[in-house]
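OP here, attaching both records as promised.
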Amino acid sequence: MLLARLSEAAGVSGQENEIRNLIKTEASRTDVDIKTDALGNVLAYKQGRQGAPTVMLAAHMDEVGLMVVGVEDSGLLRFKPVGGIDRRVLIAKQVLVGPEKIPGVIGSKPIHLQKRDERNTPFQWQELYIDIGAKDKAEAEKLVPLGTTAIFATNFQKLSDEIIMGKALDDRVGCNVLLELLACDYDCNLVCAFTVQEEVGLRGAGVAAYTVNPDLALVIEGTTASDVPDVPEHGHATSVGKGPALTIMDRTSIPAPRLVERLQQVAEKKDIPIQFRRATTGGTDAGKIQLTKGGIPVAGVSVPCRYIHSPASVASLSDIKATIHLVKGFLETF
């Protein structure tokens, strides 16, 4: 399953080599021209009708993760987060370190040795470490140079016929959508941009948009779904299983209303269930794309995912399929 391979591939922001190579291999199976820019974005060009507008679809390939910043005399690795990670979810999680995917586990002071006030306070970053079983500092440094990144050791799996679980669904679901769409032909000129370093400041998207200079763009994301107990419905942001979510505003952008309206029209015509993202927090590559050069009209389509930026996220295959159909229908309107 393509989505499984995308999910399990390593690609912490700034070190996206593995996921980039996988995407280039998959994209090359279609009739596209593939380029990689200096920052590491993958741009897949699909020629359309002469004189037709150029549409850029963007999905970021990087994921949140950890970076090794120090080594103790004992051989334990000190680390910092790359991207937004809640440190409360890290205790005892298994990780894979570096390109060799050295197995390790995130450790902390055991509960038996904690004082009462420590048990009620989340561990700080400096109180956490990665244990790879090294006997001392020399052995650890030989295996893991400073700056090495680590990913969560999460195996992709289906929880039911419709529900899947895996790491980095933000935004490997978007990468999956783009790769599926590249298999079809369109009248418009299509450029699929698999961007880097979104999780640390939307850095790749601005470079990609400057290079492509499209007439308009859509950002395909994996977004927050908090449809869980003790969260009122208006606070769900999105709900898993209710279709792709359209954004009307977030922290970094206000999508072009005419593009949002066109997406709504396509959904209504093709009987595709959609929802609106009921939160204005967070941001996507749209924030950088719309400010590139003289400005680029942009809109966002998101796949709802529970528990994003954690070791394991949950999403619906029906939402992913509906997203593919929605964006395909949008492209066919040109």
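Record two, same layout:
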Amino acid sequence: MSEKHHELIDQKVRNSNHEGNVLTVLNLSLVTFLVLLGLSMVAPILPTYAESFQVSYTLVGFVVSSFAVTRMVLDMPAGLLSRRFDKKKIMISGLVLISTSSILAGFAPNYGTLVIARMIEGAGSALYVTTATVFLAQISGEEKRGQWMSLYMGMLLLGAIFGPTFGGVLADTYDIRAPFFAYAIITGLGVFPTITLPKLANSGNASSSLKRGEILRDMREVLSTPSFLLVTFAVFTTFFLRTGVRTTLVPLFAANNLGLDSGAIGLVLTIGGITTAITITPMGSVSDRIGRKIPLALCLVLTAAITLVIPFSTDLLTLSISLGIYGAVIGFSGPSAAYVTDLSPPDKLEISMGLYRMISDFGFVVGPLLLGFIADLTATPVGGEPHSGLIGMFPFLIASIILIVAFFVLLRADDPARDRRQNAVLKSDLQLI
């Protein structure tokens, strides 16, 4: 056997000691819950906070996107670092950066400082989230990959459930800057459970240097898998929707069109988070049985439909119903990370996760900028108001069309989880004959 093959076997044996360990998954999930709790706390007030610096919807969108710009650029380097160095140290560094950036954002005296703070936050998020995703992928075996990764996503979404409400209440009770300081404290607490995580072996040849030629060769190998590209494009569109519609258009629509305050906006986003959490965890187990493609395809087409309904909301109740349905169908995307892991070469997991996060985060960047720009162009001006105008139907329509395109693209992708299940059933049937 080759030296590389021996290293792969050794790595699998060492990591199998943690495979399927629910306590390790819950530990990792707890920290990600704290990160998402803080991130979601600033979600209902971030567009309004940016607007307070007297900027357009496009620049409001850029505040949301600036976080993802840095994260997108650093996702790949974060994946490479996690291949070479201790994953726990990289995750802790990311948490420290997120906490520091939140304090800076809370004290921001102008729009430019807020953008810089958000970009630092994106750097911290790239280090933490990409490395945590690799960590989880390494301890998740093939048979329960969807279950464990969806459990992780479900715990993650608990942060999205409670965060918006807490953030809205803090903003209404104290000040619009208060959620940023709470975010800094909560994320800082995440360092302590991260320290107790087990140390994992790296995939591939961990002793090799990070040479540009080797990195580019590995990237080409991953990107030469058509299904990997098709699936990551589908995930790109779900990220596009999360920041373009949920984080940008919905809070602006709720505040400017419906006149809702920060607390009400936080409640609406919380309802969406609750319904997502309800569907996302069981969908992982379902995907282990029927494959990953069907749940993700359903997510795309159903989300396209409900996105068209959102701008017809007339009050808090109807907007809450729309976001509740929206959240439920978004939960169908829970097996996405497991899908990408299925398609990844085993010795290039960190490269695959870095590329997956980078392509996905491109959706984070494009969504708020594109839909914010379209909202500016199509808004109905209101005399005497400081904002750009009432948000119309058109930006929601564009988002829906992009989702439908992704649906048809995804139909061409392979589904290794479904194939494994079908082969296992066939083998069982043959043994009975």
